[in-house]
## 1
Amino acid sequence: MPTVSTIIEEARLTAHALAEYAGGLINPTVRLGVTGLTRAGKTVFMTALVHNLLHGGRLPVFEALSSGRVARARLAPQPDDAVPRFDYEAHVQGLIDERRWPESTRNISELRLVIDYQSGRGRARSLTLDIVDYPGEWLLDLPLIEKSYAAWSAETLALSRQAPRAQLAAAWHAHLATTKPADREDEQTALAAARLFTEYLKACRDERYALSLLPPGRFLMPGDLAGSPALTFAPLKLPGEGRAPSGSLWGMMERRYDAYKDVVVRPFFHDHFARLDRQIVLVDTLATFNAGPAALRDLEGALTAILDCFRAGRRSWLSNMFRPRIDRILFAATKADHVHHVNHDRLERILGRMTERAVSRAQFAGATIDVVALAAVRATREALVARGRERLPSILGIPAAGETAGRESFDGETEAAMFPGDLPDDPEPLFSRETGVFKGLATADAGEADYRFLRFRPPAAETNPAGHPVLPHIRLDRALQFLLGDRLA
Ligand code: GDP
């Protein structure tokens, strides 16, 4: 039975969808979501994408542009009054003039572009492209909408007892052992539990573990809600059934969990997620390899949860009546410039295999899914470097100031060559459940990771035939062709 609030939500969504539908008839619009977990590369991707479109970057696979049908792309005023504008100009200036990476995404932001082009039949047309950049942590919150506090508590606790999470959860678990759900509600107990639970989530996110599945997202990125009751709760070890006794800690935590859904998760779903047409999910796959098999398994869990969100996002028939649902999802392994080009296809295959498994686990059907390994900004070049008699395919780049490798510390000015190692050619053994080990990537078990990737400084911009600086990239054009090609046909 739909609740009153569900009916009101549906009505609001429908009114919004109708208005957008009417607008879309006159002026075709694509809303493209750009997401990924912290430091996946969202800000860099969005900056590079817009810069390449505005200034005619080298995008041979993006047919509309390479065939000369795009007359021009221009920025237009930000359409949504309540969403911050993506600070494109500041990001470009940092990247190109100062060769430093932009400030990462901490909040949702948006940018509108209008692309004037000639259709395949030679007619002059315009496509409005709204690009919405938002933290992937928010996306991973969506499954909470349909999950009770009891179910979430049980799931979160079970996960926190697995390696390597268990050791990171020790302090929180110790506190949990001192509380009983039926204890009287108490602000100090709730504060302590929330703090220890948040510290556990933060430790999981650390690059040594690089775990992905860490809801609730705002515990890691609280924004303006820091310290509010909606963020001051934690799982409890609950009895199998029954209701929270009145005035209990259990009741208090449950109320706040529900408030989190009302204040944070549902508004995000309606105001942003349900309005997207296309989605790119950026994944720092190499950082996950670097952290080892547990991180890889965790990432697969996160991809499944993400696909579940897209399924959930399509359930509302009212909104679907007026709006084409998300019909294309691209999963992109970012920072591919950290490995030699022979590994780009391998990186793509591994993410592809992981996505396939997530698709079958999420019983996902509908949208077209593709996978690409890309570097939105290519910070390295390739060379064969002699080591003894061997010539190793290596990458050259300027490690960022303060980066270290072994005993060497870099100053941000000096170029270095490194051989980052090869990814396995066949992704299949990585997923072998019989052995229970991600073979070939057992580096974390050895205590030392092979895939130790330095942060490089952004590259010097190249110049296009019109004399404008453009940023080098890897396969950004393939991503654009998949995400927008058909809309510019
Ligand atoms: P966000 O948190 O998803 O917005 O992540 P950012 O876009 O801020 O990227 C995080 C960091 O990853 C940047 O500061 C860069 O160091 C690195 N990075 C992102 N994209 C690329 C890329 O295409 N190539 C390289 N070499 N580094 C990248």
## 2
Amino acid sequence: MKKRIAIIDKNKCHPQECGNYLCMKLCPVNRMGGDCITEGEIDKKAKIDEVLCTGCGICPTRCPYGAIQIINLPGTLTKSPVHRYGENMFELYSLPTPLFGKVTGILGKNGIGKSTAMKVMANILTPNLGDWKKDTDFKEVINYFKGTETQKFMEKLGKNEINLSYKPQQVDLIPKQFDGTVRELLTKVDAKNKLEEMAEKLELTNFLETHISKVSGGELQRVAIAACVLKEANLFLFDEPTSYLDIKQRINISKFIASLAKEDTSTIVIEHDLIILDYMTDLLNIMYGHEGAFGIVSGVKSTREGINSFLEGFLKEENVRFRPRAIKFETFKDVSTAIPVPLISWKNLSLTLGNFKFRTEEGTLNKGEVIGILGENGIGKTTFIKLLAGVHKLDSGELDSEVKVAYKPQYLDTESETLVAEYIHEAIAKYSAQLVNHLDLEKLFTQKLCDLSGGELQRVSIAKCLAEDAELFLLDEPSAYLDIEQRLAVSKLIKNVAAERDITILIVDHDLMFLDNLSHKLAVFTGVPAKEGLLRGPFSMEDGMNLFLKELGITLRRDVTSNRPRINKPHSVKDREQKSNGNWYYS
Ligand code: ADP
Ligand code: ADP
Ligand code: MG
């Protein structure tokens, strides 16, 4: 077995611009006359021989574009990978096992191979067992998994005995692949004649006749889920089914996906919203390794145990520590004794935009505060911000002073050719330590915005917004596309920035755990999307959550081991108890 792998990001390797293969010139093996680093035959990019590489560490640190990673493999790996994309590319080492009658989750950071594993199971990617140069014989694949549960699965997959249906991660690609209305798209896959029923359940009825290019992200997500379940299948695969959805929709989708689990059906879900993952799955596979380099799938665990070991960073059964530190949730109490300094106050605002009516109660935002905002899509969050910034004029109400605002929108521009370093030059000049280091952005400087992954673009956009010269910042769904570790890192950053610079930050987000983790206070929207929205608060966390959860009809408790929030099973003892005490939030 090889000891280490070399990963080269071809997008970042510019051999002509670094001084003609700088890595080759510096490599001790090459200097001794060996051929450790050579010129790629076709693409002329650097190529590293993993057997000759001694792991000296010179090329990854000296490459000016950060294109090289040399990663030591754990000694416990005794087999070749299940799949490798190509020379000096990502390797996947094992697969999750689908279990019938259950919903199984996959949890792990970005770039660890979750989607790759799911594509193998969906028969979209034929595993090459680490040899990307030749076509794989499926018999070899079955042999590779000999004596495991996965063998049986792969045998059935090879014989086309598994009817599977797959919802890909990137729903935004659908409008590029299909031209027609939502109804037309769904009719094509409607094997069971259940279109109307699904449309009802997934709340699609209002836009069935809309052209697919005109629907919003959250609508597209639900269309993709509907298309997936309309197919006749006994294995359902969902890659990140809740992106773009608000909390109400997330809960609805969770219940829906959980209800798919029948004796002869198996469901696998990749999901980063921990409260939702916890709510909708019975079992869990954890993926660990090194992002962008290699990924290993853990054995299957109960969801509760699985999430707790993930947070712990340690897998008991495997005896593997995959993160040096545990992730901890503090029971957060605002202990600040300073007298609050108001930034802006309002009373009984009202505004009509087309068919939409916006109203508020009375409220104040203080300096140095992080305020979470809970509310459905289309309920008036952006409208509120524009009012505070003086973009919209009021119909009536009292608003004392206008403030300078900075805004990170929910939907980011994915087509721009601008370089990251140019786009966030203010963040680099003014807040290099605070923003650039914390969000790990330096290695992205030489890339174009359009080449970034969703999570990378999100971090860049957060840095850009927070570097602006403003008093009030609004981040609309900053957790989208971030994995759980990045979500927690961003929440810590936001709290620090608010405290250190004495600025006010409003966060609209649909990941309850994320909001709970970073907010000092909560404002809550009630009403009917696209019709009327009423803003209430900011309240204390407890009062805000109680108000919001009551509307949703769910109660939250804290897990005794990890302190993380969990949704109580409807009608369970805890659920009934908390509802009757009025403690919808933690009792
Ligand atoms: P996850 O879903 O856990 O975020 P993915 O399975 O999408 O991770 O990707 C794992 C790694 O494999 C990433 O480093 C990604 O860049 C790489 N990768 C994904 N698809 C390809 C491909 N078609 N060719 C080469 N590398 C790929
Ligand atoms: P949110 O930010 O909560 O998703 P918005 O504040 O953007 O919601 O919008 C609330 C509602 O007002 C939506 O139904 C939207 O279509 C409508 N709306 C927003 N701006 C205008 C406008 N300038 N003219 C007419 N309707 C608008
Ligand atoms: Mg993925």
## 3
Amino acid sequence: MTHQTIIFENIQTAVENGVMTITINREGKLNALTIDTLQEIKHAIQEAEKREDVSGIILTGAGPKAFAAGADISEFAHFGEDQATRMSADGHEVMNTIENSEKPVIAAVNGFALGGGCELAMACHMRVASENAKFGQPEVNLGVPPGYGGTQRLIQLVGKGKAIELLLTGDAIDAQTAFNLGLVNYVVNQENLLDKCREILAKTATKSPVAVAKVIRCVNDFFRPNVNGMQREIYEFGEAFVTEDFKEGTDAFLNKRKPNFPGK
Ligand code: COA
């Protein structure tokens, strides 16, 4: 199967051992997220979803200092209301694409994850942070609320009480504090950061892709207004029974062997 090669200007992608690593490549600007950068991330995620040789995705930033230090302030400083509304709506679409990816996406947070950078990390399914990582939503210092889902996803991850404090003070927190709050899954040395993410994805890669996609859908539905997550689970559970993955998983268990899931 051939795949269209996409040339990116602001990110780099590499596929190795079933994992696509997407690296935001604006180190000199602390990987600040321009509108184009976010669109490139969206296209890379869509590409990863299509590729049969990819089972998981790592999203990280170039260099040792930043995951992403926010939306690129120099780009939006002169925007009017319409442009800002469009910027936010398009950004939400990017974040939703990541959150709804049927393949697990892990943010490898290698430094500053501020503003849009923190929002980007929160849209991923899991976050692994290096010890130097810093998280925060400093938008109140710029005269705006967060615009890429930060007011919603921070509450989902850490609860309203702490979320509103972080959102109102703009305070940045270190990796250990983020771990204690449940904002990140693991804190590791910077040199072990990508390996830790690969280790998690090596585990999920052995599971049924059908079941993995269904779990992501069910979990996301918990947070969707007007959607009943319990009903979703009942539906996804029933539907799984007509898949080859289910036949393979149950047959492997009953015959005391490791499953080899076809992913359909
Ligand atoms: N948008 C645009 N450029 C940014 C940026 C952002 N969000 N964050 C950092 N940069 C740029 C700086 O302007 C600087 O560019 P220059 O060398 O051309 O002047 C470069 O990245 C390095 O940043 P600098 O501020 O010199 O690094 P620092 O180590 O002194 O400070 C931070 C690091 C993260 C504390 C500081 O860059 C910062 O506060 N950034 C903005 C964070 C923010 O408000 N994000 C939310 C945006 S919605």
